[in-house]
Design a protein that fits this description.
TIM Barrel; 15 strands; 8-stranded parallel β-sheet; 17% strand; disordered C terminus; binds zinc ion; 358 residues; binds (4S)-2,6-dioxohexahydropyrimidine-4-carboxylic acid
Amino acid sequence: MTDFTLARPDDWHLHLRDGAAMADVVGHTAEVFGRAIIMPNLQPPIVRTADALAYRKRILRALPRGTSFEPLMTLYLTDDTSVEEVRMAHQSGVVRAVKLYPAGATTNSDSGVTDFGRVEAVLALMAELALPLLVHAEVTDPDVDIFDREAVFIERILAPLVEAHPQLKVILEHATTAEAIAFVEGAREGVAATITPHHLLMNRNAIFTGGVRPHHYCLPVLKSERHRCELVRAATSGNRRYFLGTDSAPHEKETKEGSCGCAGIFSAHAAVALYAEVFETAGALDKLEAFASFFGADFYGLPRNKERILLRREPWEVPASYAFGSGSLVPLRAEEMVAWRVLARPSHHKSTTRPNTP
Ligand code: DOR
Ligand code: ZN
């Protein structure tokens, strides 16, 4: 028996981009996930509530007919974000979190925070409003080795910030290291982490297998096997501080394959199936539902989804590319097999089916 049903999952970290490109990718997520936290790193970034509301409308308009999907919007934190703006964002009922990019850390992060002293008042208000802070946890100091940037950020910035704002909800986004897991595990209440499918499935060898693999380049960059194993342990442990966030980040094929390729891995086409592989290999399929469908909603204080989806252990080959605006994108596992597929789309159908594999 290889059928497996779970409550409809949510993606707590997703890049949708905008315009025609967004219209091409949003269906991959919306046909499986109930909700997603939408990253604000557009050009220009989503810094105002009005921007978030307008972007949300564009996403809803681009949804394939018949899909029910709720985009949960975020504001992009800058040195100049005002407390009034954050209060307005919260009152909108549409903005569910604020994203902190250290300036220069990753794609479209140039307007990010350069001086953490300048966001103190905003963080204090967010704590009061229970509005989570989503953190891209990497220092930008070029003197720090790229594989150490997460651990150094945690020590220098994140640990003091979490202590200075004891009520602030903080999510360490796309955790990639044993140090991140140790930090989250030992942190006070109100600290959590999302974990991506690519950091669970691949280590840094995947960037260099048989040559440079630009489609395996993302930020934070893939880490060594020791770190990957620790991420798998954390994700499959049943600890409610860890939940699903794909960081699916589409880029046009040409912009990744150039001499200075963009960071980002597209996984929305197979996200739940890829997580299922990880949990199956770890002998923990029974822990997948809480990681994918419960813990994130609980952390955000939102209701769990009522619909269910059906997964089947039925291998399929991922296409070489998908449409992406005026070009195409190369998805994770392109022209390779994925072991699971989502068979039944969201429904209210209740099933008692439980995995009897592995
Ligand atoms: O690999 C990444 N791509 N990491 C990020 O933090 C941003 C993302 C993007 O927007 O492409
Ligand atoms: Zn991201």
